[in-house]
Amino acid sequence: MKVQGTVVTSQGKAVGNITVVLLKIVMQKKPSVTPLMQSRTDQDGRYQFSVKPMEGNIFLRLHAKSETSETGSEPFRLQVGQPVKMVQLVLPETLIGVKYLDFRKHILIVEALEEALQITEVINFSNRSNGVVNVDESPFVRRIPADAVNFQFFKRQNRFQATREQDRIMFKLQVPPGEHQLVYSYDLPVGSRAISFLADVPPRLGELELVVPVNTLDLSFDTSGDLSSARIVKQEKRFSNKLYNSQTLSLDRDRRDIAILIRNIPISQARFYYPAAFLAALLLLGLYIFLIRKPQASRGTGNQ
């Protein structure tokens, strides 16, 4: 029995010299998917596999992948007496640039550390096209404070890469269709009880949400400018048995950044320790001088 067909672009042009993989899907309580065999298309985009008859609970699926795009077939079964199964694979076109991505929500989670604030940013976005969106030549840039430390990128897609350059994060992305996330964090050193933080928001963003554990920091949007407090929804949320305060701002137009006010920042105990130690040293020095001079003063009085 044979499985064969062609790989073409969305414009119908044959795609040669790319890998086509035949996958075996075993339908059971927990389905398993394993590569069965692979081939490469010829110059006319044709591929072919020779397979043996399969049991009733086994399905097959085809997957084709180029350097910039990929596609797959629906699962299928080989019918008894069917010598050839024909499947044409259409490789979606590659779209270039951030403009093809829809940014739905940007979440900032702020937590207090010993001498810093830990800020975790989650950007929810989607590729609503049928093709792969290439954000590689012109990376997706996010600004963070230049004095931020301990930057971490929580990689969830092999085709998502992040590089820090001082106050910017450069994201190189190959985004397949569907919903996606960028998750990264950094620590922001602080030396005062309150700061104003500029959140760099993605283009055409729908919502910006602030999240902070209850009874800790005082986190809010700076509404002294043109931000309307009527567009802010406040609520409590629970994650992993921990309670958080949430504020979600619905955006009515495109913005470059939004000011966030962070108050009630705890002062590190170490900041009290050093002045206290210095004062204690001065007191001990004063006591030492007093004890040394007092006997001398007593002897001087006795000699008169």
Architecture overview:
By secondary structure, the chain is mainly beta. The model has no long low-confidence stretch (mean pLDDT 87). The protein has 1 helix and 22 strands. It has a 7-stranded mixed beta sheet, with no helix packed on it. The protein folds into 2 domains: 2-92, Carboxypeptidase-like, regulatory domain (Immunoglobulin-like, Sandwich); 96-263, Immunoglobulin-like, CATH 2.60.40. 11% of the residues lie in helices and 52% in strands.
Q: Please tell me what the overall shape is.
A: elongated
**Largest sheet: number of strands, sense, barrel closure:** 7 strands, mixed
Number of helices: 1
Mean pLDDT: 87
- Just give the CATH class of the largest domain: Mainly Beta
Topology:
Elements: E1 2-9, E2 19-26, E3 32-40, E4 46-50, E5 58-65, E6 70-72, E7 84-86, E8 89-91, E9 94-96, E10 102-112, E11 116-127, E12 132-143, E13 149-153, E14 160-165, E15 168-175, E16 178-189, E17 195-200, E18 207-213, E19 218-221, E20 232-239, E21 242-250, E22 257-263, H1 269-302
Parallel strand pairs: 1-7, 1-8, 9-12, 10-18
Antiparallel strand pairs: 1-4, 2-3, 2-5, 5-6, 10-11, 11-16, 12-15, 13-16, 14-15, 17-22, 18-21, 19-22, 20-21
Task: Explain briefly what this protein structure is.
This protein is mainly beta and 304 residues long. The protein has one helix at residues 269-302; strands at residues 2-9, 19-26, 32-40, 46-50, 58-65, 70-72, 84-86, 89-91, 94-96, 102-112, 116-127, 132-143, 149-153, 160-165, 168-175, 178-189, 195-200, 207-213, 218-221, 232-239, 242-250, 257-263.
